[in-house]
Q: What sequence folds into this?
């Protein structure tokens, strides 16, 4: 778990509540993101064209990605999957430059059609062929998610969720599922979660929240 905070992070700027002024380190939480690490030799399912050596997959690039990577000694990311394109989930994309340097490979990114379009617009300089290439521009390939897909030998199953009026994605990997920024789970998505043993589900507050 690289970050488990709200879009503002915890503590929030200018807040004097008991949580934001707490000395408990559990009350200092950066924006939401997780890193999934795999043994590339542990799964004998057929590999896709993506490199079978995939072993480290990041879910979302929060604005706190640099600090998260330093805090957790993250030295390798092979791919990134996106839940949606709100700022607290994509604005760390520029930090990919460092992982490009470490792996000497472009970063393979996966997102649904709306999120991919938002990323291309927000980070137009990355995808503009006229942009001068070099250390200042991340090397990224962006693939649209149309259903379950494999990263190396690991299958990712997208789980449609509601984030306010917007449909976003959670992800299931084996018996683990990650559902963030979720205020409703559509009936059809419950079948995709059958058999899950570890479920990460956001819990913002004790009262209903619109998103």
A:
């Amino acid at each position: 778990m690289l970050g488990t905070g709200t879009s503002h992070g915890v503590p929030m700027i200018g807040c004097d509540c008991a949580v934001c002024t707490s000395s408990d380190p559990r009350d200092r939480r950066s924006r939401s993101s997780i890193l999934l690490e795999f043994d590339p030799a542990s799964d004998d399912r057929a590999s896709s064209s993506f490199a079978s050596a995939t072993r480290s997959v990041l879910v979302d690039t929060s604005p706190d990605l640099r600090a998260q990577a330093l805090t957790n000694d993250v030295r390798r990311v092979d791919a990134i999957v996106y839940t949606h394109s709100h700022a607290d989930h994509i604005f760390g994309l520029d930090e990919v430059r460092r992982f490009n340097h470490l792996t000497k490979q472009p970063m393979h990114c996966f997102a649904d059609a709306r999120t991919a379009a938002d990323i291309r617009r927000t980070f137009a300089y990355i995808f503009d062929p006229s942009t001068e290439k070099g250390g200042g521009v991340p090397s990224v390939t962006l693939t649209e998610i149309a259903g379950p897909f494999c990263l190396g030998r690991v299958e990712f199953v997208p789980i449609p969720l509601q984030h306010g009026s917007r449909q976003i994605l959670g992800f299931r990997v084996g018996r683990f599922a990650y559902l963030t920024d979720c205020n409703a789970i559509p009936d059809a998505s419950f079948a995709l979660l059958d058999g899950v043993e570890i479920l990460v589900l956001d819990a913002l507050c004790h009262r209903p929240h619109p998103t």
Notes: The chain has six helices and ten strands.
